[in-house]
Amino acid sequence: MYKNQEILDYTVGAKNGPAEDYAWPEDGEHLIPDWVYTSQSVYDREMERIFKGKTWNFVALEAEIPNPGDYKRSYVGPVPVVVSRAEDGAITVFENRCAHRGAEFCRTSQGNAKEFVCPYHQWSYDLKGNLQGIPFKRGVAKQGGMPKDFRNEDHGLLKLRVTTRNGVIFASYSDEVEPIEEYLTPEILKDFDVAFPGKPLKILGYYKNELPCNWKMYHENLKDPYHATLLHSFLVVFGLLVAGNDSAMIADPVHHRHGTMASAKKEDKYAAISDDTKKEMRSFHDGMRLQDDRFLEFVKEFDSPWSVTMQTIWPNLIVQREMNTLGVRQIVPNGPNSMIMLWTMFGYEDDTPEMIRHRLRQGNLMGPAGFLGLEDNEAMKFVQEGVRRSSSDMNVVKLDAANTGTSNSLISEAAIRGMYQYYRKVMELPPTR
Ligand code: FES
């Protein structure tokens, strides 16, 4: 049995309400207890309070379902949903769960349909998730069938609220969540709208991988500029992100739940790095050169001071703009110790063929085996292994201790602390007991 399971078993029996079951450490701002990454009860509460709570969850890009009848399977938290475009162009998101006996009826990841028919007993639904047909509804020879007062309108698929922003589709279980612009805040929208200026997108491809780590670690990783200059040899050797570059870790000022990690690459990709900086970075290798220099070309196409912005949009979206490589990553939680990452890489409809080639070539930076993605995946796996199996039980987040939320320094954990401040409020995890 893992130590966190033991803690959980002890605390569940010891307290009355679930919010009282977990004791956050005394120094609540600067320590994170391991059980937030490993406890099934905490995970279950996250699904109710966060993914089914007052949040907008990314589900698809409009470019993936451009025509009437187009649909895509997706997820809100771990819940399978279908994103569908009806004959009138309206987008509907409904649970991929038949209203009859619960079958996950939509079995293909993307396609075009006139209706959805559940394979089990062939109940059929229109493109907006309304129940339209039930075989043998009146029985056979006046025997069997549904009761007389059974109304199709009462048995449609469970629909979520839907909103879009410049071609990005979000869904929510909440009737109370604020409009998407307010949800994102102007500080986050600024860079979001750089990648999504409202012009038509062109889908370039997909990746999918499982990470053996808790879903929150992915948010933390992209709110942790400290690791970027240390773990990612490629970033520092080729000057994409070096301590000392212009950079920022911006957190939304309202809740600190969203973030933008931003940096500006120096013009010269082999720009000199001071000896002092090199000494701090074991992953730095002097004199390394690329065989193909085109790989790191940065075609200036955006009105932005940053060459890289990595945005974490709470709770399930990463918007990646790494020079000319653009993508969204959707986090699908898969129990406390695992998550699925769904990547969609894109460009714009008005890209030239050369630009598409360039985006695809540079896309090797990212993805499950990308020059940058690979190391993050490994690091997060190591952390999950550590928090599941070791005997101490606290994570230390004290870098740049005086700040919470936004920080101008890369050597900072202020954005991680900001996220957990918000998280604890939503989860109602008390500071101590
Ligand atoms: Fe879908 Fe019966 S479970 S029709």
From TrEMBL:
<dbReference type="Pfam" id="PF00355">
    <property type="entry name" value="Rieske"/>
</dbReference>
<dbReference type="GO" id="GO:0005506">
    <property type="term" value="F:iron ion binding"/>
</dbReference>
<keyword id="KW-0411">Iron-sulfur</keyword>
<keyword id="KW-0560">Oxidoreductase</keyword>
<protein>
    <submittedName>
        <fullName>Salicylate 5-hydroxylase, large oxygenase component</fullName>
        <ecNumber>1.14.13.172</ecNumber>
    </submittedName>
</protein>
<keyword id="KW-0408">Iron</keyword>
<dbReference type="InterPro" id="IPR001663">
    <property type="entry name" value="Rng_hydr_dOase-A"/>
</dbReference>
<dbReference type="InterPro" id="IPR036922">
    <property type="entry name" value="Rieske_2Fe-2S_sf"/>
</dbReference>
<dbReference type="Pfam" id="PF00848">
    <property type="entry name" value="Ring_hydroxyl_A"/>
</dbReference>
<dbReference type="InterPro" id="IPR017941">
    <property type="entry name" value="Rieske_2Fe-2S"/>
</dbReference>
<dbReference type="InterPro" id="IPR015879">
    <property type="entry name" value="Ring_hydroxy_dOase_asu_C_dom"/>
</dbReference>
<dbReference type="InterPro" id="IPR043264">
    <property type="entry name" value="AhdA1c-like_alpha_C"/>
</dbReference>
<dbReference type="InterPro" id="IPR015881">
    <property type="entry name" value="ARHD_Rieske_2Fe_2S"/>
</dbReference>
<keyword id="KW-0001">2Fe-2S</keyword>
<dbReference type="GO" id="GO:0034785">
    <property type="term" value="F:salicylate 5-hydroxylase (NADH) activity"/>
</dbReference>
<dbReference type="GO" id="GO:0051537">
    <property type="term" value="F:2 iron, 2 sulfur cluster binding"/>
</dbReference>
<keyword id="KW-0479">Metal-binding</keyword>
<feature type="domain" description="Rieske">
    <location>
        <begin position="56"/>
        <end position="171"/>
    </location>
</feature>
<keyword id="KW-0520">NAD</keyword>
<comment type="similarity">
    <text>Belongs to the bacterial ring-hydroxylating dioxygenase alpha subunit family.</text>
</comment>
